[in-house]
Amino acid sequence: MKRAYNFNAGPAALPEAVLAKAQEEFLNINGSGMSVMEISHRSKDFESIINKAKSLLIELMDIPEDYDVLFLQGGASLQFSMIPMNLLPEGKTASYVLTGSWSEKALKEAEKVGTCEVAASAKETNYSTIPALDELNVAENAAYLHITSNNTIFGTQWKDYPETVEVPVIADMSSDILSKKIDVSKFGLIYAGAQKNLGPSGVTVVIIRKDLIQKNAGLPTMLSFQTHADNDSLYNTPPTMSIYLLSLVLQWVKDLGGLEEIERLNEQKAALLYNTIDESNGFYKGHARPDSRSYMNVTFTLKNEDLTKQFLAEAKEAGFVGLNGHRSVGGCRASIYNAVPLVHCEELASFMKKFQAAHTR
Ligand code: PLP
């Protein structure tokens, strides 16, 4: 069976080896005679799966000891609310950097909870840029500074992160977690829905500095970080299947050589597509300014809308999946997360060149 050239933005491609392993173990996890979906979340078998996922993530991302790793539900979208509910007390301000639709949504939810300010916005450039670090206006009494490390829809990505002395930096890393080495100690909290680089949808990873986990008696139990930290992410029934697949994806990253190797591959994949755009004499136009380009989501248009439509139709015909830009911005987008093989990017680059040759007189 030939696997699709899958450039979906999320849920997205998973490593073939992970799916094969899951298939092999599907009816019988750990010799239990049951599938992972049928075992108790309080069983030894599941305990070893969730512990493995946690310890692999800690190892791969080099997460310091003063951080906790939580596996939650509700997607990254629930974190838009949980973060201010837990970390934005009265009398403090949350600072948000707007770099696209997801940061706008994060801000909108936080505003329902407390006082917020915009520390910088790239809206004027139609979100084709990342604001310069020295242009961030962090509120004086800031509880935290929120950024979106990779902007899935517009295709931009932070290269360096803000370093604030006292104010914790919180990053929505939904679309670039585990794609490169980062220094976790620069962040107070990192969160990510799993369905791009970590596994299937259903589980949300939160990496939180322990001193930020505080009692807040007024909060609904399920919305308090403390509940999940106190119960090792097993306060209620977790998404067992998603956590199992997450553990397999993490093992795959480790077997591949860890984040250094993943980063090297991701740079290679992104370069293939961006070089094709840059060498096309304007036939393809990248949305992001070159210094702000994402290595995960490559966004571009063609000379005009008709040609863009034709490109998407012919690409689909040729077996490329998921190249339509997000419904809010149009154009084309190739999402090239960790699990997208280099050879699929080579095929896409070659298709783009052939399409250009066929449509240039
Ligand atoms: N943040 C970013 C950067 C995203 O790309 C997405 C989804 O694509 C979300 C948040 C929302 O994630 P979820 O669907 O897990 O709530």
UniProtKB/TrEMBL annotation:
Q: Name one GO biological process term.
A: L-serine biosynthetic process
Q: Is Amino-acid biosynthesis there in the keyword field?
A: yes
Keywords associated with the record: Amino-acid biosynthesis, Aminotransferase, Cytoplasm, Pyridoxal phosphate, Serine biosynthesis, Transferase
- For the modification N6-(pyridoxal phosphate)lysine, the affected residues are K196
Q: What class of enzyme is it?
A: transferase
Where in the cell is the protein located?
Answer: Cytoplasm
> Which InterPro entries does the entry link to?
Aminotrans_V_dom (IPR000192), Aminotrans_V_PyrdxlP_BS (IPR020578), Pser_aminoTfrase (IPR022278), PyrdxlP-dep_Trfase (IPR015424), PyrdxlP-dep_Trfase_major (IPR015421), PyrdxlP-dep_Trfase_small (IPR015422)
UniProt family annotation? Belongs to the class-V pyridoxal-phosphate-dependent aminotransferase family. SerC subfamily.
The protein depicted here goes by the name: Phosphoserine aminotransferase
**Which lineage?**
Bacteria, Bacillati, Bacillota, Bacilli, Bacillales
Q: Which gene encodes it?
A: serC
